[in-house]
Structure formats: structure tokens, C-alpha cells
Design goal:
It contains eight helices and twelve strands. It is of the alpha/beta class and 229 residues long. It has two domains: 114 residues, Rossmann fold, CATH 3.40.50.2300; 98 residues, Winged helix-like DNA-binding domain superfamily/Winged helix DNA-binding domain (Arc Repressor Mutant, subunit A). Helix 2 runs parallel beside helix 3 and helix 6 crosses helix 7. The longest helix is centred in the first third of the chain and has 13 residues. 31% of the residues are buried.
């Protein structure tokens, strides 16, 4: 399993949450303030963020907005304020769930699993995505690099389109098999590795400073999109 980022300035709460989350099989990265969490976000590459609203320096709303500008990573807000207007505000700002203190750590773990079972959030709302010199057209299922059309097999193209719909998000082989190959696929999950290898060859001349297909720890893959427009 991946890493859960806990952004909470109260040590007793973060320690208890971390203990239960690690018991559930996840890694944990704990941060006491929002600014430090945002500075470390790209390095940690969390699978989900538990985010307190009341934080020193940069509050939880600012952190949530910062995450949503760059990543569809799931976020569960943690707060002592339980007013309906606050919950609505959090969900409207892009939070995936909202928990009011005090809470039982077992429920937090259950909410984490529930959120991770949902279809991944997409940052892409248009018919195409442009990442530097790479343009991916979802409607026509076409890929262009520096204006030139790339020849990509249908299955490999489906994989690239899926990753492009969720830029900067990590997916494990099993997730990609289910989303791209389908739940009835009974072949080896190494098919994902071979497809990624072919896509990297097709994107050989795409500048690395704009983006790349990355292999992440834990055998996950990500379309890193530094030049996303």
C-alpha cells in the first residue's frame, strides 16, 4: 500500500492515527504545519492526505487548494468544527470526505479505505490536455508531440489516455489492469510494464523537464506533468 500523509499539529492525534494507519498496512508521513506539508508533497507522493483545518502558518483550506491545483490526490479533512456550512465548504473546495473531532481512529481507517475505493478524481475537464509540447486529444484519441501525430497501438493509447486524465497520480499495476484492460482480463500484470515501455519509446523525444512516464516505488506508474497547461 502507499503512503498516507497526516497534516495535524496536535501530536497525540497524529501519533494515534499513524499507529492505526500503519497497522492497516500503509506507510505514514506526518507534518505539523501546512507549509511543510506542501513543500514535501511532491516528494512524499501520498496516496491520500488527512488534513486538519486549523494549522499554524498555512491553514487546511490553503493546503487543500494547493493540492487541488496540482493533484487529484484524495483528501479527508479533519476538524473540530462540525457545522454543516464548514462541511459543505470543504467538499465544495475539493475535499473527498470530512470528519469532525473527536473521532475513532478505526473509523478514520475505514473512511480511508472507502475513499480509496472510489473512482480516481480527474483534474482534466476539457477534451484535451497539453503538457508542454505534448498534446493529448481525448475526443479523437490522438496524441501529438511538437505538432506531429504519434502512432500508438489502441491498448497502449488507452493506457496513456487514462494516465493523462489523472496527471501526477500514482496507479499500481492492478489498478491499471482493472481500469484499462478490464476486470475480466486474465493475463499477466506484466502487460502494464510492456505497455509503459512501448509508450516511453513513442515519447522518446518528449523533454523530461515537461513530463515523463515515471515508475514509482511499490511498482506504481505515474504520468508526471510538470508542463501541464
Amino acid at each position: 500500500m502507499g503512503t498516507i500523509m497526516i497534516v495535524e499539529d496536535e501530536d497525540p492525534i497524529s501519533r494515534v492515527l499513524a499507529a492505526y494507519i500503519r497497522k492497516a498496512g500503509f506507510d505514514c508521513a506526518i507534518f505539523k504545519d501546512g507549509l511543510q506539508a506542501m513543500e514535501s508533497f511532491d516528494t512524499v507522493q501520498p496516496e491520500l492526505v488527512l488534513l486538519d483545518v486549523m494549522l499554524p502558518g498555512m491553514d487546511g483550506w490553503e493546503v487543500l487548494n494547493g493540492i487541488r491545483r496540482k493533484s487529484p490526490c484524495p483528501v479527508i479533512m479533519l476538524t473540530a468544527r462540525g457545522e454543516v456550512t464548514d462541511r459543505i465548504h470543504g467538499l465544495n473546495e475539493g475535499a473527498d470526505d470530512y470528519m469532525t473531532k473527536p473521532f475513532e481512529p478505526e473509523e478514520v481507517v475505514a473512511r480511508i479505505h472507502a475513499v480509496l475505493r472510489r473512482p480516481p478524481r480527474s483534474l482534466v475537464s476539457s477534451e484535451q490536455v497539453v503538457i508542454g509540447s505534448l498534446r493529448i486529444d481525448f475526443k479523437s484519441r490522438s496524441v501529438y508531440l511538437n505538432g506531429a501525430s504519434l502512432s500508438i497501438t489502441p491498448r497502449d493509447l488507452s493506457l496513456l489516455l487514462f494516465l493523462a486524465e489523472h496527471p501526477n497520480q500514482i496507479f499500481y499495476r492492478e489498478q491499471l489492469i482493472e481500469k484499462v484492460w478490464g476486470i475480466d482480463y486474465d493475463g499477466s500484470d506484466r502487460a502494464v510494464d510492456l505497455a509503459i515501455k512501448r509508450l516511453r519509446k513513442a515519447l522518446l523525444h518528449w523533454p523530461a523537464e515537461e513530463g515523463e512516464l515515471r515508475t514509482m516505488r511499490g511498482t506504481g506508474y505515474q504520468l508526471y506533468a510538470n508542463g501541464l497547461k
